[in-house]
Amino acid sequence: MTVTTEARHRTLFDKAPIGILYADADGTAVDANPRLCRLLGYTREQLIGLPTTTLVAADAAATRGLEGHHRDWHFRRHDGTTFTADVVTTTCEDGSRLVMVREASEARLAAERAARDEHQLADAMIESMPGVVYFYDASRRFRRWNRNLEAVTGYTPEEIVTMDPLDLLAPEDRARVGERIIGVFETGEASTEATLLARDGRRTPYHFTGRRVHFEGQACLIGVGIDISAQQAAEAARGHQARAEAADRVKSAFLATMSHELRTPLNSIIGFAGVLLQELAGPLNTEQHTQLGMVRTSARHLLALVNDVLDISKIEAGQLEIGHAPFPVARSIAKVVDLVSPTAQKNGVTLRATVAPEVGTLVADERRVEQILLNLIGNAVKFTDRGEVVVAADVVADPPCLRLRVSDTGIGIRAEDLPSLFQPFRQIDAGLTRRYDGTGLGLAICARLVRLMGGHIEALSQWGAGSTFTVTLPLEAARR
After folding, report:
1. 173 DSSP β-pair partners
2. Model's pTM, two decimal places?
3. Total structural domains in the chain?
4. Which residue of 57, 208, 373, 406 could cross-link 76, Cys pair, CB 3.0 to 4.6 Å?
5. What share of the chain is helix, strand, coil (3-state, %, to 5)?
6. 209 φ, ψ to 5°?
């Protein structure tokens, strides 16, 4: 029996293991084989006459005019469910189309989904890294990079893909980094620091690492660059601080040594001046007596300055010892007031003290507390042309502390000068025509002594209306 060509084609059409759809030039289904009917859930009669666009679940326009092999087309079944298939389309001379559909296997789809998910995860990891990520082959042609590389260099993807990695570095670093790149391909990995040079000329220090990997049959380099500008700045700051601290220790030691060397001759000058003023070595005329008095006064003033320098240098060097013994506060206040009273009377300033009944004994360094009072009361008298200076002492309950206040009606302090008030070698009136002598160490010493005893000092002032200094000390000061 002779089988015609048409019959053979029909048999192949009906028995084909893949779905086959025949559509006319307008995209209307003309015929479908049983396999396609089963895939779509239609009978042959139901399919014939349907627009092929109704059979596609997404991107209906893609069914028109596409030639060749296509993967992952999504078809819609008669019951509304969908499936994924590979498609091959062929257009005939009269414009009709033959569409062959093979349902994608679950294994392949699962593998592709896994690969796609893995690729997306890798992309997310690369993009989430804080530095720059780069990947290039042995010819130093960029294959991959993250968006940070574009952001920090200012180059577009189209420019980066044509560049050598060394083009992104400062000229002075290129030869050295080039050797490190060769080392990566020879030994497997390397790291170095270099300056990243942006398109606009910005220079940023980076730490680069590289590792050799094999990709598509050839050796490649994958690496990461981390901005280390903050780290370098911190290291520079630490180095500067260490040098400053070392210099400060040398300065303090020098000042302490020189202060001791100066105190001995100054005490001798003061002592011998006193002997001469007592005329133990013979009588003096009026002018000689006046001149020797000026010598002794100047020597005492210089000794006071040397003692201040010695104190501040000892404090800064951590060498000052703080005593810890009970003493009556009222006695120390009276002693200091008696010392400053002659100067107050000379300046026409009233100096008085008020001690609350609850003020009793303080456990601290008596000499240092009196030094604090002497500085504060002496300053108050010095900067008060008229009016009064009041020293007040009481006890605050929470927590139990001694509070000492020295108030004056003097010139006051400007608001902008208050922040630097307790800094060493700083004076408010620092001009060439300054009326008031001093080193500017007194208040700095007070602040440090108060802090060493676990206390607090503060100043309130109004320019032209006087000042109040308040010292608060625990009733049992800290041991040092």
Report:
1. none
2. 0.45
3. 4
4. 57
5. 45, 25, 30
6. -125, 145
